[in-house]
Amino acid sequence: IDSAVASVLKNDGYDFVIRYYTSLSNQETGKLLKDTEVLRLHNANLKIVSVYQDYGNNISDFTNEKANLHAERAMELAEGLDQPKGSVIYFGVDFSPSSSELNTIVQYFNAVKDKLSGKYRIGVYGTAEVCDLITRDLASHSWLSHNIRNSSTSIEGDPAYILYDSQLKYDIRFYNSIEFDYDTAINDDYGQW
C-alpha cells in the first residue's frame, strides 16, 4: 500500500489494514509486509493487523514442522518491523478442514503457541469451527472467515457460522470481497498495532 492509497483508506473511514507475513519463497508476490509500508500506514494513522500465511489452503500446510517454521518466520518478521511484543499475529487456515483434519490443525497451533509463547499473542483466521476450537486454549483472537467449505452454500445457511457470529466470539469478521477484502473489527483489541 503506497502513501496515496493509505490516505484514501483513512479518509474513507478505515482504521486498519490487514497485511501478511509469509515465507521467503513468497516474498516477491506483494503479499509480504515491509518496513516502508509499515511507515506509510502508521503515517496515515492506520493500524496494522498481522497474519502469517503462505498458502494455508490444504491440510498438508499444517504439519508440526511447518508450524515451527511459520512461527519462527512470523516472529523474525514481526521483530524486524518493530511489531510490539504482546501484540497479535494471526495464522490463516484458509480452507474448511473436515472433522478428521481438525486434530492436525490443533497440533499445528500447539506448536505455534510453543514457539511464540511470551512473545506474541496468537490469532486464528478460519471458519467458525476452526476459530471456536482454536480459541478455546491456543489463541487469544479470532478472525472469522466466510464459509470456505462450499462457496455455493451461503453463510446464512451455515449453522456453525450463524452461532459463532451471533455470539460475537470473534475479534474480526470477514465482511465482503470486491477489489480487496473488507473486514470489520468488533472489539477494541482486535490484534492491531
Overview of the molecule:
It is a single chain. By secondary structure, the protein is an alpha/beta fold. Helices cover 34% and strands 20% of the residues. It has six helices and seven strands. A seven-stranded mixed β-sheet has the order 1-2-3-4-5-6-7. The longest helix has 17 residues, at 64-80. The chain starts with a helix and ends in an 8-residue tail after the last strand.
Helix segment tally = 6
The average pLDDT is 88
The major pleated sheet works out as: 7 strands, mixed
Structural class by helix and strand composition: alpha/beta
CA-based shape: globular
Rg over CA atoms: 16 Å
Gap between N and C termini: 16 Å
Indicate the proportion of strand residues: 15-25%
The proportion of residues forming helix, as a percent range, comes to 25-40%
Strand order of the largest sheet: 1-2-3-4-5-6-7
**Low-confidence segments, ≥5 residues, pLDDT <50?**
149-153
User: What is the number of beta strands?
Assistant: 7
Spell out the helices and strands N to C. HEHEHEHEHEHEE
Spell out the blueprint of helices and strands.
Layout: H1 3-11, E1 16-21, H2 35-43, E2 47-52, H3 64-80, E3 88-92, H4 102-116, E4 121-126, H5 128-134, E5 141-144, H6 159-166, E6 172-177, E7 181-185
Parallel strand pairs: 1-2, 2-3, 3-4, 4-5, 5-6
Antiparallel strand pairs: 6-7
